[in-house]
């Protein structure tokens, strides 16, 4: 008679054991899995093959999934996911207001006490702190530097010298245009952002004197209609004739292909183009900083704090996420990231070696030139119209030759005047 | 007599029962979101995401504040142009193709029908990509093609010029969707009884006269329906512009239509942060524009249309 009871007991026992095992394994699995939201879909391979395995060597218990969205959809997709409660645990942060508003809405965790945050200077964190500077909500990852990448072999073929000043720059462009069939300046205006980013923000800091000008624009003591800003658009207005045929319909990918196929000579670049060019170009290429206006000694570069990572405030795995971020603050990560993605320069204070030659060139300008960030990113794109959108629009028109430099300046300044007190 | 009409007066539960599934789905997925959008447009949000009631202030901003109203009127005007191009190009071509297809002497008409309808079934992203390549001044074949027929000097970077970008995009859209009016009109033409055509031929009318005086009046209601479908689809259009020109719809917002304006407002763009409530206001205006258009058609055009019993 005891058999059936025994049987039942055993069955119950094994069942409950099974349940415990099942729940605990589910717990272990879900407690340690982190999903990373990012717009860097170009970097999927490096995350999956290099960065995540390197992290797992030290923390094998945390599973990481890199889940990127295409860059142009990222902000909207992330917003929708955060509202729907389906966003990943780790959020790649855009600089300034986009992330700041996420923090204000309570979507991002404050990271002031994160171990490792002390490795980042105020400058490095500036894009991810509240306006009063009290709270930091994303861990800075990298900055990108602007300049011009050129095809070294074509430079030798045409016996060209790297231009240092504005007039030398146009002399080089003239030579290419008159003596060869190559496209002198490889850039298109169809996607519009290149006009503002690779054009205006690339050569601009030389004219508005970097940080001094950026701050003056913020406090209203300088206006976009001042000569130092109009001059930037005047320079760009001269680019049109050197850009390829039909550049008005040329997209970013077209430009990259034109350059890597060796059909163009100079490419207004962001340092993030280096990995793509390393992959695709079978010739040697190098970089030079934006040429200074004639007679100016100091050079200024755009060294833009571009990418960071924060923690989704609604994440159930915050501890694991903090562990990961602390690891990202380490020297190991800085070296790994900067070398696997040459052109993204770690913002931490660690001394790191960069092996890629072109990336080294970009980085060396930090010693020679004054750094600044893009002037439209902090505060000035907050209202309507957003200054960044305006810059895309007018810079494209200036390059297309459909708007004068003066009118471009007038339009952006008028936009700021509509909502920004210091400019009213 | 002793039992009054209890059977007749019973509530018709079965009607409700059969209506319920469709009604429920329609209300949950169509009526409720629509009403919620209308409602949401009356709110505003502060920077912490807290919502508060704001009456019609979103609409005031949208229609009276220059920073919002200029993009709005620009988008509305561009959208109107987009629609007019469809009306003037897509629907006449659709009608023409349908007339050709319904001709009994045309061989391989099924093949043509399938081929012409094919682009409609492709994804807009593919259409955008293919046409960008075709029209690209760098890699495209259209320049070479134009030269080979002696029109090379007219080639330009059409998709990149302020003056031609919207027209080019509208024509790409026409190319993609011309199959729909063609199919609808073709179906209407097939339903015209042969004896009517025969009678007109016997009476001595030419092919053109038969078309103009017999077929066209009979398919007019279908053309009306095609027009209203075009109107609704065009004022809801978004994908093609977004796929080809991005959400900033350049150059100089010359390709900005209501859909892209809504996208930028609702989701934000680059550094511009999105506003759900303002987006809802834009969506409401889009809804009202479409509503007014459809009502105008229903009350002004459709009532005057003659219908014939076939």
Number of helices of chain A: 18
Oligomer: heterodimer
CATH architecture of chain B: Orthogonal Bundle
Query: How helical, in percent, are the residues of chain B?
Result: 55-70%
Share of β-strand residues of chain A: 5-15%
Poorly predicted runs of 5 or more residues of chain A:
1-30
Termini separation of chain B: 48 Å
Mean pLDDT of chain A: 90
Order of helices and strands of chain A: HEHEHEHHEHHEHHHHHEHEEHHEHEHH
**Name of the CATH architecture of the largest domain in chain A:** 3-Layer(aba) Sandwich
CATH homology superfamily of chain B: MetI-like
Please tally the β strands of chain B and state the result. Answer: 4
Q: Specify the structural class of chain B.
A: mainly alpha
Can you identify the CATH superfamily of the largest domain in chain A? Answer: Periplasmic binding protein-like II
Q: How is the biggest beta sheet of chain B arranged?
A: 2 strands, antiparallel
CATH hierarchy, class of the largest domain in chain A = Alpha Beta
Beta fraction of chain B: under 5%
Count of distinct structural domains of chain B: 1
Explain what you see.
The complex is a heterodimer of chains A (424) and B (310). Chain A has 2 domains: 33-143 and 305-366, Periplasmic binding protein-like II (D-Maltodextrin-Binding Protein, domain 2), CATH 3.40.190.10; 144-303 and 371-423, 3-Layer(aba) Sandwich (D-Maltodextrin-Binding Protein, domain 2), CATH 3.40.190.10. Chain A is 48% helix and 14% strand. Chain A contains 18 helices and 10 strands. In chain A, strands 1, 2, 3, 4, 5, 6, 7, 8, 9 and 10 form a 10-stranded mixed sheet that branches. In chain A, strand 1 (33-38), helix 2 and strand 2 form a beta-alpha-beta unit. Chain A is globular, with a radius of gyration of 25 Å. With 310 residues, chain B is mostly helical. Chain B has one domain (53-304): MetI-like (MetI-like fold), CATH 1.10.3720.10. Chain B has helices at 6-9, 13-40, 57-64, 66-101, 109-121, 124-135, 142-148, 165-177, 179-190, 194-202, 207-235, 239-245, 258-267, 276-301; strands at residues 43-45, 51-53, 268-269, 272-273. In chain B, strands 1-2 form a two-stranded antiparallel ribbon. Chain B has a two-stranded antiparallel sheet with strand order 3-4. In chain B, helix 4 (66-101) crosses helix 9 (179-190) and helix 11 packs antiparallel against helix 14 (276-301). Classes of the chains: A alpha/beta (424), B mainly alpha (310). Chain A binds chain B through residues 72, 75-76, 79-80, 96-98, 101, 104-106, 188-193, 244-251, 254, 258, 376-377, 381-382, 384-389, 392-393, 396-397, 400, 402-403, 415, 418-419, and chain B through 47-49, 66-68, 132, 135-139, 156-162, 245-248, 250-253, 263, 266-274.
């Amino acid at each position: 008679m005891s058999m059936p009871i025994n049987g039942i007991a055993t069955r119950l026992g094994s069942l409950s054991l099974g349940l415990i095992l099942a729940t605990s394994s589910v717990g272990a699995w879900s407690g340690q899995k982190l999903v990373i939201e990012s717009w860097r879909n170009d970097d999927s391979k490096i995350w999956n093959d290099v960065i995540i395995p390197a992290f797992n060597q030290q923390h094998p218990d945390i599973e990481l999934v890199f889940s990127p969205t295409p860059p142009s959809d990222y902000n909207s997709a992330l917003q929708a996911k955060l509202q729907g409660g389906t966003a990943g645990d780790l959020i790649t942060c855009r600089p300034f207001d986009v992330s700041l508003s996420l923090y204000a809405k309570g979507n991002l965790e404050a990271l002031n006490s994160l171990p490792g945050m002390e490795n980042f200077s105020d400058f490095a964190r500036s894009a991810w702190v509240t306006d009063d500077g009290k709270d930091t909500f994303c861990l800075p990852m990298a900055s990108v530097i602007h300049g011009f990448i050129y095809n070294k072999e074509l430079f030798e073929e045409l016996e060209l010298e790297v231009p240092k000043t504005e007039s030398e720059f146009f002399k080089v462009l003239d030579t290419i245009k008159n003596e060869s069939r190559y496209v002198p300046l490889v850039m298109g205006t169809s996607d519009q952002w290149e006009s503002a980013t690779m054009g205006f923000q690339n050569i601009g800091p030389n004219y508005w004197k970097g940080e001094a000008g950026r701050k003056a624009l913020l406090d209203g003591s300088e206006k976009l209609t001042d000569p130092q800003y109009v001059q930037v658009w005047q320079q760009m207005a001269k680019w049109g004739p050197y850009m390829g045929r039909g550049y008005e319909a040329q997209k970013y990918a077209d430009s990259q292909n034109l350059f890597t196929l060796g059909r163009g000579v100079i490419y207004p670049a962001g340092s993030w183009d280096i990995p793509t060019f390393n992959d695709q170009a079978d010739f040697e290429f190098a970089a030079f900083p934006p040429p200074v206006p004639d007679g100016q000694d100091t050079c200024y570069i755009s060294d833009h704090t571009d990418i960071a990572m924060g923690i989704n405030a609604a994440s159930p795995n915050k501890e694991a996420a903090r562990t990961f971020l602390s690891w990202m603050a380490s020297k190991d990560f800085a070296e790994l990231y900067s070398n696997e993605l040459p052109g993204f320069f770690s913002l931490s204070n660690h001394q790191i070696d960069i092996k890629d030659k072109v990336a080294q060139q970009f980085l060396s300008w930090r010693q020679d030139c004054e750094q600044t960030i893009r002037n439209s990113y902090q505060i000035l794109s907050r209202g309507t119209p957003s200054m960044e959108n305006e810059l895309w629009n007018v810079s494209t028109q200036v390059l297309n030759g459909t708007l004068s430099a003066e009118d471009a300046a007038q339009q952006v300044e008028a936009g700021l005047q509509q909502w920004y007190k210091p400019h009213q | 007599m002793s039992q009054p009409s209890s059977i007749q007066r019973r509530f018709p539960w079965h009607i409700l029962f059969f209506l319920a599934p469709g009604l429920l789905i329609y209300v949950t997925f169509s009526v409720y979101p629509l009403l919620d959008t209308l409602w949401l447009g009356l709110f505003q949000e502060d920077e912490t995401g807290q919502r508060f009631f704001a009456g019609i202030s979103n609409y005031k901003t949208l229609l009276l504040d220059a920073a919002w109203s200029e993009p709005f009127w620009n988008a509305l005007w561009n959208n109107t142009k987009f629609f007019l191009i469809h009306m003037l190009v897509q629907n006449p071509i659709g009608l023409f193709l349908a007339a050709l297809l319904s001709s009994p002497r045309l061989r391989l008409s099924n093949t043509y029908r399938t081929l012409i309808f094919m682009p409609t079934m492709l994804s807009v992203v593919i259409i955008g990509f293919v046409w960008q390549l075709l029209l690209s001044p760098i890699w495209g074949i259209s320049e070479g093609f134009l030269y080979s027929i002696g029109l090379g000097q007219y080639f330009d970077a059409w998709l990149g010029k302020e003056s031609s970008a919207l027209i080019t995009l509208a024509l790409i859209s026409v190319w993609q969707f011309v199959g729909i009016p063609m199919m609808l009109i073709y179906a209407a033409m097939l339903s015209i009884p042969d004896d009517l055509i025969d009678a007109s031929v016997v009476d001595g009318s030419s092919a053109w006269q038969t078309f103009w005086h017999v077929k066209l009046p009979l398919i007019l209601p279908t053309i009306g329906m095609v027009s209203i479908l075009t109107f609704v689809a065009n004022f809801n259009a978004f994908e093609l512009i977004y796929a080809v020109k991005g959400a900033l719809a350049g150059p100089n917002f010359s390709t900005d239509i209501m859909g892209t304006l809504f996208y930028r407002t609702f989701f934000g763009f680059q550094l511009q942060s999105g506003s759900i409530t303002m987006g809802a206001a834009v969506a409401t205006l889009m809804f009202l524009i479409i509503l007014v258009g459809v009502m105008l058609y229903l009350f002004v055009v459709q009532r005057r249309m003659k219908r014939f019993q076939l």
